[in-house]
Predict the 3D structure of the following.
Amino acid sequence: MSLKLSDTSPQFIEDARFSAEEKASSPVDMKCDPHGLPLNPQPTDRPDDPLNWSKLLKWCILLHVSFSAFIANVGAASANSALVSIAAYYDISVKTASYQATLFILFSGISSLVIVPFANVYGRRPFYLLFGLILAMSSIWSGASRSWSSVIVARIFDGIGASASFALGAATVCDIFYQHERGFYIGIYTLFFTTGPHIAPLIGGYLAQYVNFRWCFYVPGIAQSAVFFSLIFFLPETLFPREDINAQSSPPLSYLQLLIIHRKIIPRKLSVQSFISPVSIAGKIAVLLPTLYYMTSFAFSSTVFGVSAASIAKTVYGFDTAQTGIFMSVPFTVGGLLGEATAGWVSDLIVSRSAKAHGGHPEPEARLYQLPLALCQPIGLIVSGVCLQLKTHYIAVAIGFGIASFGLQQATTICYSYCTDCYKDRSAEVGALNNLFRMVFAFCVGFYALPFAERCGFAAAYGILAALNFVFWLGVVFLIFKGRQIRA
C-alpha cells in the first residue's frame, strides 16, 4: 500500500463567492474541495501529510482503528451473558460476577488521561501497538484464571489495554479526514465502538453454553492478537506536525518510515499541563455539555442493559445462556445500524449546506440539528421499562431496546462530531474526556442499576433514567442557539 494523493485531491482555486475582505485575509491559493469550498484543515503539499493520502489507505486505517475499538468492547461485554455460569464456577453472586465488566470500564476510562498527552507528542501508532498487546495478553489471562481475584486483576489490565483504541479513535479520524466529511467517518468509528458491546452477548452466550465461559475471554484475546499483528503493517503514524515549519521543510517520509518512527512527532516538551489538558478541556462549555449528555446516553442505554439484561432474561423470561445472548444482542445491533444509517452522512450533508450559507465556513452547531432523532433513546428506555414491569412478551422489551440503541447511535455520532469540529486541534483530549466521563459514570451506574430497578420497579427506574437523559439533551439543544457565542 503506497502513500499517494487520491483521485479527488484538493485543487488550488480561488472561490468567487468569497468577499473581498475574506480574500484579503486569506491565502490567494486556497485549497478547496470539488464544490469550491475551502478545506478545513488546509492540507500541505507533502505526500506524507495524512490528509493527502489515498482513500484506500484512509479506509484501511479507519477500519483498523474501528475494529480495534470493536474487539476491545467485545472483550468488555462478551462475558455479560455468561454471568450466571461465572458466578457458579467461582462461587460468587451474579452481582459480584458483573464487577469484572465494571472494573474494565473504570480503568479504560482512567488510563485515557495518561495515554493522550504522550500520543499528542510521540504519535498515535506506538500506543495502539503497546496497549493492543496488553489487551490481547490480559484477555487470555482472564480466561485462564482459576481464582476470582486473578480474574479481577486481569480485567483491570484488560481495561488499561483497551483505553488506547477508545481514547485515540476520534483523534485518528480527525488526523486523516477533513471537517466536511468527518461526520460520516466518525460515525463509522462510533458504530463499531457501540456495536461491540451489543454483538458481544450473542458471541458470549453461545460460547458459554456450548463450549465454556472461559472462551468468552479467549476469543476476544485471539481476535485482538490478530488485530495487533495487522496494525504492525497497516497503521502508519497519522499525527502530522502541521504547524511545524521546520518539520515540513524536511524530506517527506516514506510509508515504511511512518511505520518505524521512534521519535517525537510534535516538538514540544511534556509538562504537568500536558496531563491536565484532557481534563481542563471540560472547562469548555461546548465540550462539557455534549460530554455530559453522551455520558448519560452510554450509561443508560448500554451499560445498564448490559449488566442487568442477563439477570432479567433468566428471572423474567427463563432464558438459557444462548437465548440470553440473542436477547441482549440483536435489538441493540439492529438499532445501532439503523441509527448510523441516518446519522453520519446526514450530519455531513447539513454541514456542507451550512458551509455554502456561510461563505465556505461551516458552523459546528449545524451538526446539532439532528438532536431530535436522539430522543429515541429516552423513549426506548421508557418502553422497555414499562414492558419489563408488566412482564409483556420479550419482543416488546426488545423493541424498546432497539429504539434506545437507535437514539444512542445518533447521540454518539452527534457529540463526537460536534466536539471535534469545535476543537479539532484538541481532538485527542476530547476523545479522552468523553472516554473518562463515559466509563467512570458507567462504572458507578453499573453497580447500582439492577438493585435500583428491583427496588423501584423497572418502569419507575427506567423512567427516571430517561428523564435525566432528557435534561442533559436540553443542555446540548442550548448550544444550537448559544454555541457560537460561547466558543467565541
